[in-house]
Design a protein that fits this description.
This protein has 13 helices and eight strands. It is α/β, with parallel strands linked by helices and 293 residues long. An eight-stranded mixed β-sheet has the order 1-2-4-3-5-6-7-8, with helices on both faces. Helix 2 links the parallel strand 3 and strand 4. Helix 6 packs across helix 7. It is globular. 50% of the residues are buried.
C-alpha cells in the first residue's frame, strides 16, 4: 500500500515517506562513503539529486510517487549531508565522477536523472560525459547557467553562515531563501538541516562546497552552449514563478537550445518546486518519464 494520493499540504518528511518501503544505507562510491536512500523496484531507475548545501530529504515528498513506477535512488553529494566531508574544492568533474562510481556500485547501467539546482548542473554535465548512461533528464531550476554576483554572494553568505553557526535562525534564513512561501519551511526541515550542519567538520566541508560561488572557479564549470548541444536525450526543464536564482527565461532558453527539450513553469514555488508544489511536480515528472520516444 502507498499513500501517494494522501500527501497534501506540507507533510513532514516522515509522513511523506510513510507507506512506501525504503532503505537508507551507506555505500562506497570512489573515495566517498555515500548516504543513499532507495525505494521502489521498477524496471527503470530514477536518480534524485539535491542542490548545493542540501541533502536527500529535499525529495522526501516525491519519493513515494516515483517509487510506484521506478527504482528510486536519492543520495547525498560528496561533502554534503552524511556523505564524507570534503577536504578540497569540489568542482563539477568531482560530482560527475562520484555519480558514475555510485551507479557502478549500485549496479545501475542507465538511469533517468532528476536534479535540482546543483543536481541539475551535475545531471547536464554527466549527460555530456556519459551519454550512454542517461535515459531522460529532469532539470529542476538547474544551476550552472547563470553567474550573478549578488546571487552567488547571497548563497555563499547564507550557507557558510549556517554551517559556521547552525542556529535555528541561520538555518531557517538559508531555507527561506529557497522558498516562495516561508510557511513551507517546517521546523522538521530546519532540524534536519541543523543536525547535518552541526556535524564536526561540516563547516570546513562547506567552504570547499562553496568554491562554485567563486567567479573564476564557476566560470570554468559553467554549462556551455556546446554542452547543451551535446545532450540528445529527452529533457524537461522545470522553472518556477519565484525562483531566487534567476528568471524563468533562463530555463526556457535551456529548453529551446536542447535537441529534445521542453519547458514547464510551476507557479507559487521558489527554488524547490518538488517540495513546495510536490503534487504538481510529481505529475509533471511521471507524465514526462512515461512518454514514449
Amino acid at each position: 500500500m502507498t499513500l501517494t494520493h494522501s500527501i497534501t499540504g506540507n507533510p513532514s518528511i516522515w509522513v511523506a515517506l510513510m507507506g512506501q518501503p525504503f532503505t537508507v544505507h551507506e555505500v562506497d562510491a570512489g573515495k566517498w562513503r555515500t548516504r543513499v536512500l532507495e525505494a521502489g523496484t521498477g524496471p527503470e531507475t530514477l536518480i534524485l539529486m539535491h542542490g548545493i548545501g542540501g541533502h536527500l530529504e529535499a525529495y522526501a515528498r516525491n519519493i513515494p510517487a516515483f517509487a510506484e513506477r521506478y527504482r528510486v535512488i536519492a543520495y547525498d553529494f560528496p561533502g554534503h549531508g552524511f556523505t564524507t566531508h570534503a577536504t578540497a574544492n569540489l568542482e563539477l568533474d568531482d560530482y560527475v565522477a562520484h555519480l558514475a562510481a555510485l551507479l557502478d556500485t549500485l549496479g545501475v547501467r542507465r538511469a533517468h536523472l532528476n536534479g535540482e539546482s546543483l543536481g541539475g548542473w551535475v545531471a547536464m554535465k554527466f549527460a555530456v560525459a556519459h551519454p550512454g548512461r542517461v535515459e531522460k533528464l529532469v532539470l529542476n531550476t538547474p544551476g550552472g547557467n547563470l553567474s550573478v554576483p549578488e546571487v552567488r554572494e547571497r548563497i555563499q553568505t547564507l550557507s557558510q553562515g549556517a554551517a559556521d553557526d547552525p542556529s535555528d535562525e541561520r538555518i531557517r534564513a538559508r531555507l527561506e531563501w529557497l522558498m516562495a512561501d516561508n510557511a513551507t519551511v517546517t521546523q522538521e526541515l530546519v532540524d534536519t538541516r541543523r543536525t547535518i550542519y552541526s556535524r564536526p567538520g561540516f563547516s570546513d566541508s562547506m567552504r570547499f562546497i562553496m568554491c562554485l560561488q567563486d567567479e573564476q572557479i564557476r566560470a570554468r564549470n559553467m554549462v556551455t552552449d556546446a554542452d547543451l548541444d551535446a545532450i540528445d536525450v529527452s529533457t524537461m526543464v522545470v522553472w518556477t514563478s519565484d525562483d531566487p536564482s534567476g528568471p524563468a527565461a533562463t530555463g526556457l532558453r535551456i529548453a529551446e537550445r536542447l535537441v529534445s527539450g521542453r519547458f514547464e513553469l510551476v507557479k507559487d514555488a521558489g527554488h524547490w518546486p518538488q517540495w513546495e508544489q510536490h503534487s504538481t511536480f510529481n505529475r509533471l515528472v511521471l507524465d514526462f518519464l512515461a512518454e514514449q520516444p
